[in-house]
Amino acid sequence: MKHINVALFVPHLGCPNTCIFCNQKTISGKCSELKKQEIISAIETARKTPHSIHNSEIAFFGGSFTAIEREKMLSYLQTASAYIGKDFGGIRISTRPDAIDEEILSILKKYGVTSIELGAQSMCDDVLSLNERGHTADDTRKAAKLIKENGFSLGLQMMTGLYGSSREKDMYTAGQFVELKPDTVRIYPTVVLEGTKLAEYYIKGMYTPETLEESVELCSLLLELFYENSIKVIRLGLHSGGNVEEGFIAGVYHPAFGELCEAGIYKNLVLRQLGGMPKGNYTVLVNPREISKMTGQKKSNIEFFREKGYFLKIKGDEELKEYQIKITI
């Protein structure tokens, strides 16, 4: 049976400041405060869809959940917790790294929270400061340690191409994530949205966003790194929907961004194995379920290698696992 996430957005609630890239109304399409009846309605709708209780969650996203006014946070938790164990396995929340302590974790556990995601975004203090995050990399390290010690599933969120960041700093952030051993990671290339300070920087020429090609190349490497370390990447790029299309000014926003990155992994794997081999015809074996990824969108990988003088034929091999290839003549 399928996994279901009931996604409930609490835009800007609990956020002590506004990061220069953030416009939650544009991202979620929602600006009003989440009401109890909205929670109930969303959950009741989801209950009608056949699903596995144990891996389905009620998720509060968008703001800094544990920094919300305590009475309101408890009200949200009480409403959602009534469905835990009956229809859903647990509650997932996202919050700031500096809004986690032992007391908060005790409350969350009491109400059935099982997964906590930290909006770390970067592990470089200079990048965090330039983007007005209001927390440090050490805050993320301390919060991650507490979350794991208290038995919660840990999720970490990072952004690539932030103002003041670089490819090297983004790779450093990913490496630091690996050391923290999260269960899940979300990767969001920076998008310039109207109504943000970053939009002002972009218009003034103070900020140059990543290109789609640059972002796919980098995120393919990050995805491979996390895969090799048994860390599940549960999101690549912003969700479509909300008002993102209307509020988008610049940056990396593609409805199939994850697919592009997975195709990028296979391109990199072939490049490494073909290194030093003469141009010509080759057969690339992959797991049958991975053929479309190896081929790439609109046969982009096939065309890439054709232009370099390598003519590839893609075939399935059940013995190969995800992100494994074998090249034969």
Tertiary shape:
globular
Here the CATH topology of the largest domain equals TIM Barrel
| Total number of helices | 13
Strand content: 15-25%
Unreliable stretches (pLDDT < 50, length at least 5) are none
Which homologous superfamily in CATH is the superfamily of the largest domain? Answer: Aldolase class I
CATH architecture descriptor name of the largest domain: Alpha-Beta Barrel
Spatial strand order of the main sheet: 1-2-3-4-5-6-8
How far apart the termini lie comes to 42 Å
Rg over alpha carbons: 21 Å
When the domains are counted, the total is 2
Which class best fits the helix and strand makeup? alpha/beta
Main CATH class of the largest domain: Alpha Beta
Q: Which tags fit this structure?
A:
13 helices; alpha/beta; Hypothetical Protein Ychn, Chain: A; 329 residues; TIM Barrel; 12 strands; seven-stranded parallel beta sheet; three-stranded mixed beta sheet
